[in-house]
Write the structure tokens for this entry.
Amino acid sequence: MSVIEAENVTKTFELEKSRILVLDNVNFSVGSDEFVCLVGPSGCGKSTMLRIIAGLEQADSGTVRFHGEQIIKPNPKIAMVFQLFGLLPWKTALENIELPLEVIGASKEERTRTAQEYLEMVELKEFDNTYPHDLSGGMKQRVGIARALALKPEVLLMDEPFSSLDELTAKTLRELVLDIWRDPDLPTNTFIMVSHNVEEAVFMADRVIVMTPRPGRVIGEVEIDIPRPRLSHIRESRYFELVDKIVELLEIGKKQNQH
Amino acid sequence: MREYFVSLIVGLVVLCVMSWLIVTFVAYPEVKNLPLHTYATVSRIIITLLISVAWGLSFGILAATNKLASLIVTPFIDLLQSIPILGYFPVVIGFLFALGPLGIEFSVIILLFTSMAWAIFFGVLGAVSGIPANVAEASRAFGLSGWRYIRHVVLPAITPAVVSGANLAWCDGWFFMIAAEYIQYEGRVVPPPSGGLGYLLARAAYYYKDMNLSVILLLFITFIVVYFNVLTWHRLMDRVSTGTFKPVFKIDLSGVGKLGVTRMNGWLHFRRHWPKSFFATSQRLRKYSRIEKIIAVVLALFMIFLVLRSEGHHIPTLDTIMRGFSEPPSEELGRLPVLVSLTMMRLLAAYGISLVVAIALGILAVEHKRLAVVIYPFYDIGQGVPILALFPVLFLGLNQLLGAPRIALEFTCVIMLVLDMIWYMFINILSAVKNIPADLREVGQLLGLKGYNRLRHLVIPYILPAIVTGSILSWGTGWNTIIFAEYMPSTEPGVPSLSVPGIGSLLDKAGYEYGNTIILIFLLGVIAAIVLFMEGAIWRRLLRKFEKYRVEV
């Protein structure tokens, strides 16, 4: 049974009177407990696809379903992590995580306790009273992840969550995200990540969905059959085979759209 | 293009018909020359605008690119701007009126200039310092320097700021036109020799006390302003792609105001660093291009000349100062704290009203597309109404309604202040709400922030810095307007002028009725001190506090 199902999704944007087709008949589905990566060149509409799943945008035609029900507005069961973190600069790390809990009407005591719990989980316990301004990029993204988890969502959407971080920080955060995904105590177990980094996708995902340049279409799906934890397997030939396969698909997509 | 010509011609036809109707049906002799008055005012404002742009460009670029110049020019202009324009005006005209009709025309232009120039200067200053460091470095790496740097990097980068600054200046010009063209000197009104719409309106309201004529003239003036706005400014702004609502004033305030109280403190220690900074200055001097050197020298000579020419032969001695303080209206100085607090209360009331209304309208205009359709045209027209010209008309109307001139003046004063202050608040808040980054909006949507929660957690915190910036500007302009708004000049000889008690009206009395320059300057000093104190004690502190709220992109 798939959790997220995209069916014939088409989306155009209007830009100064000309219409630009960004998503052209996109189909895929994501199952429970699955970690899926959407990979494609920049501007291919993968972020738009993610926003449609989040309920932030509407498809022009086609549907996106969550447990069989069409997504028409944001749903607390689907959370999102942003490329530029999306933290409110006027709130401390703790207050940022408390915010979603406040919106659903949790008591002050409960919010603080839950927020502290998640802050501890992302290893930022001592930074509860720090403003985003004074946090490093990696720390900010940790807060962003903690905030996304605060409402115990089922699905976590990530829009290039590591692309504004340096490689060392990104590496640590990838491990953190995988730990969260594997944690049996957390209800958040379906992950959809948008990335343009093929190595990252192969390292993290169960399945990689490859998209063409604009207008974005799905050109292929690659099953990643490397055993986890993968840190010990990234020097093996299978890893490079899969990376090459995805890069090849990207190249084909590029050529297709040139004609 | 076709649309443009149609609106050009339709507008002109409407203007002609309007002026024909007014000329035909109004009996007063002055009004018969309406087209000439219109021509005089429009060309006066255009001339002043050109001067202001030239001045703002050269001084703005100079102050932004040159450390030494910014050390001298910026604080000086900051000070001039802090001092209410209408306040130091009597001093200037006394000197210029001696030159005859040309001197009167010249002083009108000077008064207009002092109200128009700041917007352009500070816009340019902000835009030049806003050029990204990497662009500046890259162009230096390619060997661009001096004039070529200005030509290829600075000018293109600041064009939007210049255009929107010029637009603001244009509106400010219309705002002050009525004060500039209706100068009182030694108890009598001195009309500009070539006339003007402001003069005409003041005449209709103050002298003939004709409500209908005042309203008609006001509509006529508003139409002209809106006509020009639609015809030139909107198109210009579109072309430089600033968007109509680019905040000209969203300058980095910490870079501009060098006279804040907090900085004063630093100045006191200046002496200790003297040798070092002197050395640095002489080093920097060597790096100047020839043009910069010439400009600096010409400027310095001009300023020295001005000071010598106007003040050289009567530098006030202790004796004249003492005499000034013993002549009327010195007896009122004892009540100064009361007068200041009365004025303060008016400003506070007006500030409170404009704050609430501007926040509400600013947020509504951006967040609700349908309301925006209603609000924007109002904004356009409201921007076009020369608010100062409203003063006599508003007073006349309220006086007829209430029958009590003093209460009517009190109300008029606060309404004027609101109309004046709200504009800066609104434009700053509007652009801030518009600039809320997409990802923050999305976060709000995802978390289900709505209504009050959305305002409290997302919108209001985001626009706080803009509110502070808007507050600084609206208090500045408020202090300026209060001098005009607390005092209703007498219309005929022998009839006492009408005023509400306050420091503004006292200043007017000292200037217009008693010609007491010493007290005038003293009161200006008091006002400047209050403005600077508020800036240092409140606004700068708030700005610094909100600094970390700024969203990094």
